[in-house]
Design a protein that fits this description.
The complex is a heterotrimer of chains A (270), B (278) and C (289).
Chain A: H1 6-12, H2 17-36, H3 41-44, H4 47-58, H5 67-102, H6 108-123, H7 126-137, H8 141-166, H9 170-177, H10 182-216, H11 223-233, H12 237-266
Chain B: H1 15-35, H2 46-57, H3 66-101, H4 116-135, H5 138-149, H6 153-178, H7 182-189, H8 194-228, H9 235-245, H10 249-277
Helix pairs in contact in B: 3-4, 3-6, 3-8, 3-9, 3-10, 4-6, 5-6, 6-8, 7-8, 8-9, 8-10, 9-10
Chain C: E1 3-11, E2 21-30, E3 35-39, H1 46-53, E4 61-66, H2 76-84, E5 86-89, H3 101-106, H4 115-123, H5 129-137, H6 153-167, E6 171-175, H7 183-200, E7 203-207, H8 211-217, E8 220-225, E9 228-233, H9 240-246
Parallel strand pairs in C: 3-7, 3-8, 5-6, 6-7
Antiparallel strand pairs in C: 1-2, 1-4, 8-9
Helix pairs in contact in C: 5-6, 6-7
Classes of the chains: A mainly alpha (270), B mainly alpha (278), C alpha/beta (289).
Chain lengths: 270, 278, 289
C-alpha cells in the first residue's frame, strides 16, 4: 500500500477551475444584491422584529365569517371569475383575428407588424395593463377585464399563430382551388383542424387568469383583489384574512377542477 | 312498419344540441358581463378619453432627461438586486423542504422501521407548508409584508423568497423523484445518512435540471419584482406606479421601455446560462 | 452465528410483481466466516433472498437474524448501524453516471464516516490511497479518476465490488457480481471476494448465474428454485442430476461464465483453495473489455 503521488493529489480535486470561478461569481452577486439593498438580515430576523411579526400575524385571526361579509366575498369571487372569463373570451377572439396575419396569411409586412404588436401586448405585465386601464375606464372590474384581454390576446395570439403555422395547408388549399373564397376556405378547411388546440390553450390561460384576476384589484381593477386592498388600507385585518382564505380556496378549487378535467381527458374514450 | 331507412331524416340531428349549448352559453354570458361591469361605452366617455388621451399623448417622446434616467437606472439595479436576493433566500427555504419532501430519500420506505410514522408526518407537514407558500399569490404576500415591514425592497425580497420558496421546493422534490433513484436508495440501504445519500446519490444526476429550473425562476423573479413595486416594494414598479399616479406619460413610457429591455436581457441571460449547463 | 433465516417467506408488496410470491419457507443459517453460493434459474428469488439478508426488504413471514440482531426490531439509528456493517454488491451497480470512480468507491464508507468527512470528500477525497488500492485489486487502478459513464459494463461492476471491499463489511452479499465480465476477470473478482472473506474472517454470500464459478469457489452451494431451497450441499455432492433438476425448465443447457454449455465434473472437486494448475481455460476467446 504505497503513498499517494502528487499527480494523484492534483487529479483528485473534485471541481474544475471554471466550476469554482462560477460558484464564487454567483456567491459574490448574491452578496452584492443584499448589500445594494442595505438589507440587514440580522435585524430582520431579530427577536424584536419576530415579536412584531407575531403580533401582526395574530391580528389576522380569527377571520371575519359574518354572513354579511361572506356575501361580499361571494360577490367578489363572482366578480373575479367574471373578469377572468370575459377577459379570456375577448382575448381568444382578438387573438384569433391577430393570429391570421401573424401566421403570414396576409403578407409578410402585416406578419412583422402583428408579431411586434403581439409581443408588445405580451411583454407588458397584466398588472401594468390594469393600472393603465384604470386610467382609461375608471376603477372597477371593467378595467381588470380589459387588462386581462389585452395581455392574454398577446399570449393567445402567438400560440394561435403557431398552431396555424403548424397545421397542414392542404384542406384549405384544395377548397380554394375548387373555387371557394379564401375566408370560406379557412373556415371550412383550417379552422376545424385547429379548434381543439385553440380551446385547450384558451382554457389553460383562463385557469391562469383566474389567479391573475384575484390580484389585479390591487390597482383598482375589481374582484377579490380590490376588496383585499381596501380592507388592508383600513387596517381591517380580520376581514382581510377572510378574503385571503377565499383567494386560496378559489385557487385550490380551480387547480383541482383542471386536474380532474385533465384526468378525464386522458382516460381512453374520454 | 315504416322504418327510418325508407324515410331519410331531413333535420340535422346535431341542430338541437348545438342550439341548446349556444343558448346555455348566452345565458351564462349575460350575467357574467353584468358582474364584470362590461360597459365599452365608458371607454369613450369624454372625461376618460381626455385623461387617457392626454396621458398617451405624452408617451412620445419618452422622458430621457439625465436626472430621470439616473432614477430609472437606480430602480433597475434595485429590481435586479431584489430578484437575485429573493431567489437566493427562496433556495434557502426550498432546499431543506424539498429534501424532506422527496420520497427518494425516505428511509422509512426501505422496509417499515418502528418510527415510520414520524417520517410520513414530517413529509405531510412539508407538503402543507409548500402549498401554503405557493397558493397565496406573491403580490398578496408583498402587500402583507409592506404592511409589516414598511415600503421598500425588503418586503419584495421576502415576498419572492416565500412564494418562490414554495414553488422551488415542490419542483426540487419532483426532480429528485423523477430521475434514477437507485444510487441514493443503495446508499441508504448501506447505512448512509440521508444528506450524504443526496450528495453522493442524487445530486450528480439531478444537479443540472435543478440548476436549470432555478435560473428560470430567477428570470420570473425579475418580472415579479417589477410588479411588486406597484404595492410599494421598491424597484421599477414603484417608480412606474408613482409616475402613473401623476399622469406623467413621458416617464411611464421610459420606464416601460426600460422594463421591456430588462425582461429581454434576463431572458437572454437565462437561456445562455441554461445552455451552458447542458 | 452470522445470520439465520427461519421459515422466511416474501410476497412482493408493490411494483410490477405485486402479489407474486418470491420466497417460501426459506430456512438457512450460516456461521461467521462461511462462504455460500446461491444458484438457480432466473426468477428463483436469489435477489430477494439477498435483499432480505441485507435488511433492505422486510420478509412477509418468518424471522430474520443478521449479525446478532433482529433488524426489524431495531430503532432507526441502530438499523442504520447494522446496515453499514453489511455490504451489498448489486448486479447493476447503482452509481450515478457522472460520478468519478474514486467518489463512487469512497461512498462505501458513508455509513461509517462523520458527516464533515463525507461532505469534504465531495470536493477533495479524504482518502485517495484506499480506493486506489481496492480498484488495484480488481485491475482497475488506472481508471481511478475517470467518470463512471466512460467505463464498460464489466469495469462498472468492478467499481461496485471495490466500493463494498472499501466498506469492509462483516457480511458480504453479492448479487450476480460478475455477470458482465469475461471468465478471466470474473475469476479475478471472485478470487478477491474470496480472499477478503478469508483474510478478515467475514461471511460471504453470492448469488451466481454461472454454475462453474459457484462449484469452483464456494464450499457450500444452495440451490433455489421458485422461491424454495432445493438443496444445500458441498460442491462435490452437487451432481449433474441435481443440477438438471434445479434448472429443469431452462433450455437444458446449464449456464456457465463463458456462455459455453457447462459440464459438471463427474468426480469430487475440492473448492476450499484457489484452483492450482487445474484452472479451466475458457473455451471461447475472452471478451475484450
Amino acid at each position: 500500500m504505497s503513498g499517494v503521488t502528487f499527480a494523484e493529489r492534483r487529479a483528485a480535486m473534485g471541481f474544475c477551475l471554471h466550476c469554482w470561478t462560477t460558484l464564487l461569481l454567483l456567491a459574490f452577486l448574491v452578496w452584492a444584491s443584499f448589500a445594494y439593498l442595505s438589507l440587514d438580515l440580522s435585524r430582520l430576523f431579530s427577536a424584536e422584529s419576530g415579536r412584531g411579526m407575531l403580533q401582526f400575524v395574530l391580528r389576522f385571526f380569527p377571520p371575519d365569517t359574518s354572513a354579511e361579509f361572506l356575501r361580499k366575498i361571494a360577490k367578489g369571487t363572482l366578480e373575479t371569475l367574471a373578469i377572468s372569463a370575459i377577459g379570456t373570451l375577448l382575448a381568444a377572439g382578438a387573438g384569433l383575428l391577430l393570429a391570421l396575419p401573424a401566421a403570414g396569411r396576409l403578407g409578410s409586412v402585416l406578419k412583422a407588424v402583428t408579431r411586434f404588436l403581439l409581443n408588445a401586448l405580451r411583454s407588458v405585465p397584466e398588472l401594468v395593463w390594469a393600472a393603465l386601464m384604470v386610467l382609461a375606464a375608471g376603477l372597477g372590474p371593467f378595467a381588470g377585464t380589459l387588462a386581462l384581454a389585452l395581455h392574454t390576446a398577446g399570449v393567445l395570439g402567438r400560440l394561435f399563430a403557431e398552431s396555424l403555422e403548424n397545421t397542414p395547408p392542404e384542406p384549405a388549399r384544395s377548397l380554394a382551388e375548387s373555387g371557394a373564397a379564401p375566408a370560406l376556405a379557412f373556415l371550412y378547411g383550417t379552422l376545424p383542424a385547429i379548434t381543439p388546440q385553440l380551446i385547450a390553450y384558451s382554457l389553460y390561460r383562463w385557469e391562469m387568469n383566474i389567479r391573475m384576476a384575484t390580484v389585479l384589484g390591487f390597482v383598482g381593477a375589481g374582484g377579490l383583489g380590490q376588496m383585499l386592498y381596501y380592507e388592508l388600507s383600513l387596517l381591517h385585518e380580520a376581514q382581510a384574512s377572510s378574503v385571503i382564505i377565499a383567494m386560496l380556496a378559489l385557487v385550490v378549487l380551480v387547480d383541482a377542477a383542471s386536474a380532474w378535467v385533465r384526468r378525464r381527458q386522458m382516460r381512453p374514450g374520454g | 312498419m315504416a322504418s327510418s331507412l325508407q324515410q331519410p331524416r331531413l333535420r340535422d340531428p346535431d341542430a338541437l344540441r348545438r342550439a341548446g349549448w349556444a343558448l346555455l352559453a348566452l345565458l351564462a354570458l349575460w350575467p357574467l358581463l353584468l358582474i364584470a361591469e362590461f360597459r365599452p361605452a365608458e371607454l369613450f366617455d369624454a372625461r376618460n378619453l381626455a385623461v387617457m388621451g392626454g396621458f398617451l399623448g405624452q408617451f412620445f417622446p419618452p422622458n430621457l432627461s439625465g436626472d430621470f434616467l439616473a432614477f430609472v437606472l437606480k430602480a433597475t439595479m434595485e429590481t435586479l438586486a431584489m430578484a437575485t436576493a429573493g431567489t437566493a433566500l427562496a433556495m434557502l427555504l426550498a432546499v431543506p423542504l424539498g429534501l424532506v419532501l422527496t420520497h427518494s430519500l425516505s428511509v422509512s420506505r426501505i422496509g417499515p422501521a418502528p418510527d415510520r410514522g414520524a417520517g410520513e408526518a414530517l413529509r405531510a407537514l412539508a407538503r402543507m407548508t409548500l402549498l401554503l407558500l405557493r397558493g397565496i399569490p406573491e403580490l398578496v404576500w408583498a402587500l402583507l409584508l409592506v404592511r409589516a415591514f414598511g415600503l421598500g425592497p425588503a418586503a419584495g425580497v421576502l415576498a419572492i423568497a416565500l412564494t418562490y420558496g414554495g414553488m422551488l421546493g415542490k419542483v426540487y422534490a419532483e426532480i429528485l423523484e423523477s430521475g434514477d433513484t437507485r444510487p441514493a436508495r443503495a446508499l441508504l440501504e448501506s447505512g448512509s445518512g440521508r444528506l450524504m445519500a443526496f450528495f453522493y446519490g442524487l445530486l450528480p444526476g439531478a444537479g443540472q435540471e435543478l440548476a436549470s429550473y432555478t435560473i428560470y425562476r430567477w428570470e420570473c423573479a425579475v418580472r415579479a419584482s417589477v410588479i411588486m413595486g406597484f404595492v410599494g416594494a421598491g424597484g421599477l414598479g414603484q417608480l412606474m406606479d408613482q409616475s402613473m399616479k401623476m399622469l406623467n406619460g413621458g416617464e411611464v413610457s421610459t420606464i416601460l421601455i426600460v422594463f421591456l429591455l430588462l425582461v429581454l436581457l434576463a431572458d437572454a441571460l437565462s437561456v445562455f446560462l441554461r445552455k451552458l449547463l447542458a | 452465528m452470522s445470520f439465520e433465516l427461519d421459515r422466511v417467506g416474501l410476497v412482493h408488496a408493490n411494483g410490477q410483481a405485486q402479489g407474486q410470491r418470491a420466497l417460501r419457507a426459506v430456512s438457512i443459517a450460516a456461521a461467521r466466516g462461511e462462504r455460500l453460493a446461491i444458484i438457480g434459474p432466473s426468477g428463483a428469488g436469489k435477489t430477494s433472498l439477498l435483499r432480505i439478508l441485507a435488511s433492505s426488504i422486510r420478509p412477509t413471514e418468518g424471522r430474520v437474524s443478521v449479525l446478532g440482531s433482529h433488524p426489524w426490531q431495531l430503532g432507526g439509528s441502530e438499523l442504520r448501524r447494522l446496515r453499514s456493517r453489511i455490504g451489498f454488491i448489486h448486479q447493476a451497480p447503482p452509481i450515478p453516471p457522472r460520478q468519478r470512480a474514486i467518489t463512487a468507491v469512497i461512498a462505501g464508507r458513508l455509513g461509517q464516516w462523520p458527516w464533515w468527512k463525507s461532505a469534504l470528500s465531495l470536493i477533495y477525497p479524504a482518502d485517495i490511497a484506499g480506493p486506489r488500492d481496492q480498484l488495484a485489486r480488481l485491475d482497475l487502478a488506472d481508471r481511478l479518476f475517470d467518470r463512471c459513464d466512460r467505463l464498460s459494463g464489466g469495469q462498472l461492476q468492478r467499481v461496485g465490488v471495490a466500493r463494498v471491499l472499501y466498506q469492509r463489511p462483516d457480511l458480504l452479499l453479492a448479487d450476480e457480481p460478475v455477470s458482465a465480465m469475461d471468465p478471466a476477470l470474473a475469476d479475478l473478482t471472485v478470487s478477491q471476494l474470496h480472499a477478503e472473506a478469508q483474510s478478515r474472517g467475514v461471511t460471504l454470500v453470492a448469488s451466481l448465474h454461472a454454475v462453474d464459478i459457484a462449484l469452483r469457489w464456494f464450499p457450500r452451494v444452495i440451490g433455489l428454485r421458485a422461491g424454495e431451497v432445493v438443496f444445500d450441499l458441498p460442491p462435490e455432492k452437487v451432481s449433474e442430476s441435481v443440477l438438471r433438476e434445479l434448472y429443469a425448465s431452462e433450455t437444458g443447457v446449464l449456464p456457465s461464465q463463458d456462455n459455453q454449455p457447462f459440464n459438471p465434473p463427474v468426480g469430487a472437486h475440492p473448492a476450499d483453495d484457489a484452483p492450482a494448475g487445474g484452472a479451466r481455460k475458457p473455451v471461447a476467446p475472452p471478451r475484450v473489455i
